[in-house]
Known about the structure:
Chain A is α/β, with parallel strands linked by helices. Chain A has helices at residues 16-27, 29-36, 67-72, 87-96, 106-123, 131-134, 140-146, 161-173, 177-187, 195-198, 201-215, 234-242, 313-333, 370-380, 411-422; strands at residues 6-12, 39-46, 63-64, 76-79, 100-103, 127-128, 152-158, 225-226, 245-257, 267-279, 291-298, 302-309, 355-365, 385-393, 399-406, 409-410, 427-437.
Amino acid sequence: MTDYRRLRVALLGAGAVGSQVAALLRQHADELADRAGARLELIGIAVRDVDAPRETDLPRELLTTDAESLIVGADIVIELMGGIEPARTHLLQAINSGADVVTANKALLATHGPEIFDAADQVGAEVYYEAAAAGAIPIIRPLRDSLAGDRVQRIMGIVNGTTNYILDRMDTEGAEFADVLADAQRLGYAEADPTADVEGYDAAQKAAILASLAFHTTVPLDAVHREGITSIDKSMMDAARHAGYVIKLLAVCERLSGGPGASGTGESISVRVYPALIDRTHPLASVHGANNAVFVQAEAAGNLMFYGAGAGGVQTASAVLGDVVSAARRHIAGGVGVGESTLANLPVVPVGRVTTRYQITLEVADQPGVLATVAGILSDGRVSIATVEQTVAGEDARTARLEIGTHKALEQDLSETVDRLAASGVVERVVSVLRVEGD
Amino acid sequence: MTDYRRLRVALLGAGAVGSQVAALLRQHADELADRAGARLELIGIAVRDVDAPRETDLPRELLTTDAESLIVGADIVIELMGGIEPARTHLLQAINSGADVVTANKALLATHGPEIFDAADQVGAEVYYEAAAAGAIPIIRPLRDSLAGDRVQRIMGIVNGTTNYILDRMDTEGAEFADVLADAQRLGYAEADPTADVEGYDAAQKAAILASLAFHTTVPLDAVHREGITSIDKSMMDAARHAGYVIKLLAVCERLSGGPGASGTGESISVRVYPALIDRTHPLASVHGANNAVFVQAEAAGNLMFYGAGAGGVQTASAVLGDVVSAARRHIAGGVGVGESTLANLPVVPVGRVTTRYQITLEVADQPGVLATVAGILSDGRVSIATVEQTVAGEDARTARLEIGTHKALEQDLSETVDRLAASGVVERVVSVLRVEGD
């Protein structure tokens, strides 16, 4: 066996991912040493309570509540605590004490990314965060390195497993949101408090990270437009299916021409998370269950898709360990870390400036002249109609349902037009308004 | 504009990929400088004939036939000549003169990879070859870095666009091989001499590269079992569809337990390229046209898939430029390059030692007792039957067609058993024997 140099690895957090990382570090120690060119010695695991019951068997002597002392002696620090504090303080301490850091903390990077990357740049360290963007799916290196010579035009990601699981079951089983959510909670696919998932907060954090990387721009979390899936019901699923679509919660990161505050190149970007319709023949439509996928459109490379498990303790541990090996190789090789490239610094436009196609479902009075009135309002609002279908009669005989597919329209125009439709007198109810993505 | 250090880039070859690389280097010069942290100055393009007609407009003053002089003055050398010589000599010269090298040359890496990687290790340079494995699909960094802390169990790749285009059209249109090939040649999807594609040579080179990376093992090209698609006909496509399968040319790289010469861990690997059946619900089944995809199964990460364009000048140029930016960043950052990790050094077993399921189609005499005889021969040969179906009668009334699906069997056992079936007297013709992959 080769006599390798030793690198001291400190682990912060021993939850679902942390305990798997600890187990794999010991289980594959020899193989990891061969690949990293150094033995990765786990010197300690910082936890809140040393005596808390744990699923995985961790060596008692490695556990400590003193994260700060642990960090001081480490070459590589793995932060898997989650949340903003004390994770932020610990990461900055690790960077300033000369360690390379690995983190899966999307909330922290989406809110304090620039502070952390700047600190790393100052000392020539590197921040590795493959597990923060799309779980086990390798997407950071493809975006940061493989596509560094290309221009990303658009990313569409299914980056939250819980919501994809729920929407997929609603689609395939014709079930209602609340029933599937309850089931998902029972099976462990959704948290007791599902807000972070179903309201799109988790996806928005990942969208901010992906957009920052893809467009070489700092994207603050509050610039990400976010809508959840709680308003999606069976009838919307049925209408989508009927029209050849499926509803997915998408994180869309898009390069636009122009827009307010557009850069010297006349470009801006949009970053948004919402449930959207995509054509059933689109590769993202066949991402089932709790799986994730990131669809990337680049100027030269064309269409790429990265598919895999978006969450799970052992899956995410794979991404973390890949980062640990990279950090170790860098320690051995020397040289300063690759910093985050944010020099493009494109402005992020509000969602109102985005153009997409829409599918609008209206319940209207079943009387002559209604379609002419609706068409007139759309036309006045600069929303051009592509298809109209009167799908089902209302519950009583007085109303009919109109399915309107639009050409590309400005979100702001569309939104104002829908308000006018609602107030027009001929529209009884705006059943749903959904964007169509993937053109 | 930031005042960057300049890095001198030499380009060897100005074909479909090279001319796109040259164009993009100039077109996106400012953006590339921001991302690389250095201005990438194209100092020359080595070609065979300076006056040859070219599709893309290249600056006449950059063209030279003197590759050696060009290499001497370069920080980064991009080799896009293809073929073994003089590409090999030039790459080694570049490495020894202190340059980092980028290549898309799969033939060279599959045959002389160890020599080139060793040379780079000696001087601390790095060899970048994203474009050599699956065209524009980022697969090298995911395998080398992102999954470095995991254990890859299996890779199944559709890594040749021409054969996927042909098989996809045969499947969707019910066309015959020769007709689609002629069409593919007319449309530019296949070369005038299609041997490298349709006989699986191109896929075998990529399989050797992918397996070397995934299993940290030097995989010589002649250890890759290779079969092409020229024997696939409409009736096999129809039978596959009937049984719920689709036929794809797959590059399969698999970790096995045991096998002759198994390593200390009791492991070995198999690397093979052949047309195989995969279930229509498998993600690889929906890879259409000339697209490529690499499906990776890893111990911790689970199933991952990477999808995109496998070829094309501008698409491949994207992968090359990503490598150029990486090489430039390394030049700036300092430190030695990450060498190839081949320490696992697992033995590659012959295809006879592989177990898969099989789908066997036989034309048999339509008389009592035939099935019993066939079943007996299979059982004697340690091939266990999973399904049997008598699908269609032969052209005359005397014969019937048997579709036999087997459980997993050893290739060697299966092959000997098929020979015995052919010689049994009750089998008129062995119509086809296809492996089933993707379990």
